[in-house]
Design a protein that fits this description.
six-stranded mixed sheet; globular; alpha/beta; Metallo-beta-lactamase, Chain A
Amino acid sequence: MINWKQVPLGPVQANAYVLYNQDKEAVIFDPGGDGEAFQSALQRENIKPIAILLTHAHFDHIGAVDHIRDAFNIPVYLHQAEESWLSDPAKNLSINMTPQGFTARPADHLIIGENRLRVGPFEFQIYETPGHSPGSVSFYHEETSTVFSGDVLFQAGIGRTDLPYGDEKTLLDSIHLKLLELPEDTTVACGHGPETTVANEMDQNPFLSGL
């Protein structure tokens, strides 16, 4: 049995996710901050992380990457289009938060293309879903009927495209051609706010009307 939980972290409460099995092995999506508290919570519940998967490399999704990576000695996965972002405060936008910005070490593994990704006992279909950022990816986990989509699609909203490297048409194409093609009962685990479903967003999302 595989389950997941949402954990808002960091200065803007971006959603991290913990996907775990009956043995408490887990993958961590987008650990955005509060590294010590997040580590302690995982250890209290005997969660054993085996990898960090990043939907994209904006500051609010990567703030605890190195802390969690080092605490559990696990690798980080990131799309190749944002290979340099972890170490570049201008690209990850943390320069807008503090004078020095924020950096993390490079990813251990780069995601290239829309392949299947197996991490320990977990398997995902990767979808390239740019528009909010050029390397945004969504991880579809068929066993739980969940897509971990970062800041691509929200409940009644879509990701920002007014940030550097954002593009609204590209984002809408990503949503329409990738996420809305998933089964309608798929849960969308969003980067901010509550989860939703593909069906709900097809029917009710005002940004997607007319697609």
